[in-house]
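Researcher: Excuse me, tokens okay?
***
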Amino acid sequence: MTALHPETILLGAYALFLLGAAAVLDLLAAHAHRRSQRYRTAGFTYYEHLDTWVCPEGEHLRSREVDHARRLVRYRARPHVCNACARKPACTDSDEGREVVRFLDDWPRLEAGRFHRGLAATLVALAALMAVAALVRHHGPVELAALGCLLMVTGLVGRRLAPPLTHR
């Protein structure tokens, strides 16, 4: 049995590193988005069946605008209630009432999500390109098996990242 060529090992290891970096980038970007959403709506509760947010003081924020181009809904509290609220300085500096934004799409379909998924998909494509280049240069049976497995893993990671980029 012949051993793997050192170049194949190095290219395979680097391709695996790129796949790992793509997965970590995707996970961290999604986590940052969820955390940002929690921060912006901290203390507020969304009631889907009413399509209403409720603030910690019990005020209802009703839908005021649906922005189809940006795929979001803006909710706003009544200004006179917010302006009279003791929590106003900690809640909003607007004299028009507190505003909360709810995105109509999930994270991967948002602009930031598509950007980060695009970066991750680029890393996956680079890993696949490196595996194919290694296959062209070294096509012994051991290399074929190792690089074929690497290409299958690359395909699985790419498939995981691709749907939000291709479906809108």
Remarks:
- The chain has two domains: 6-33+111-166, 42-106.
